[in-house]
Amino acid sequence: MPKCRFKDVKIAGIVTxxxxxxxxxxxELALFGGNLKQLERLKKTIxxxxxxxxxxxxxxxxxxxxxxxxxxxxxxxxxxxxxxVICVTQTPDYSQPCNAAVLHGRLGLSKNCAALDINLxxxxxxxxxxxxxxxxxxxxxxxxxxxxxxxxxxxxxxKDRSVAxxxxxxxxxxxxxxxxxxxxxxxxxxTDGSGYDKLIVPAGGARCPRSAETALxxxxxxxxxxxxxxxxxxxxxxxxxxxxxxxxxxKELLEYAEVEADAVDYFVFHQANRYILGNIAKRLKLDLAKxxxxxxxxxxxxxxxxxxxxxxxELATALSDRASTQALLSGFGVGLSWASALVELSxxxxxxLIDYPA
Length: 358
Hints:
It is a single chain. This protein is of the alpha/beta class. It has a single domain, classed as Thiolase/Chalcone synthase (Peroxisomal Thiolase, Chain A, domain 1). The protein is 29% helix and 25% strand. It contains nine helices and 17 strands. It has helices spanning 36-45, 60-75, 99-107, 124-137, 235-257, 274-284, 294-299, 306-314, 316-321, and strands spanning 4-6, 9-18, 21-24, 50-53, 84-88, 114-118, 143-151, 169-178, 185-191, 199-200, 218-219, 225-226, 232-233, 266-269, 326-333, 337-344, 350-355. The strands form five sheets. A six-stranded mixed beta sheet has the order 6-5-7-8-2-17, with helices on both faces. It has a five-stranded mixed beta sheet with strand order 1-9-16-15-14, with helices on both faces. Helix 3 links the parallel strand 5 and strand 6.
């Protein structure tokens, strides 16, 4: 789509909720055939360390609800003033109805409030911000609640070392509102659907319904076990896509906004893994102090919640100390899809990372 800009809209608050159960790759040596050197190499290069995952009863909706309740309580936001709720997730509670409708009811929002889901993962947070800005800029809404979260850990096979040690879970709530005089926000959204099968859960939809056959885990050539109901990632293809398209997209957005990279305070990328983030930063010649990378090592790859988690977990103190903070947010992955936004993160009502249950 053409790049776009919005005036008089701001991000007012962000809360991210992570589950309490922590897994450490050091305790999963058997997954790597007892090869300690390989494990240490992965920890050093890719950044695999710890991750937070849900139990069998907790869903992405639960994490997003806790984040939203905390945001509403701490900001003093009247429920009747929420004009729309958007939920970004690829792990909804039900195939229907949408998570947004379910959470609308659980949060007790007004009947005069729109509710809809976005079925996106890694780029979904930025897509959700773009849609919220669009709804407000059109004049139809004054305040939009964006809920973005996933529990991808429930989709991976525990014996698939290509994905099991990487994915964590999280849920976020972001308040976007009309604010006359707010700095211009810039967005760019892109897709390459020809690569849809590079990161996919093959079974479980209408194309390939679940069955006894799709639930059967088989071993691949690399010794990983997964079924058609588990997440599959073609790692090399995702890596090449990420380090090719992301730097290009960031450069194009900065050119469109007529902003130099040095003028941006932080570059908050989807927390895929440290190796990918480092390569993107190197290609863009960024100051690594401006690129949060610790979130993926502490909480894992959280899909749609990772950008919000990086903001809350790594930048909250810095944001509170700055009168104005310009941040470039960028997500990339499943779809294949990628999206970037250049926004101001200033005067946030709240920016916190909380544990579930709150």
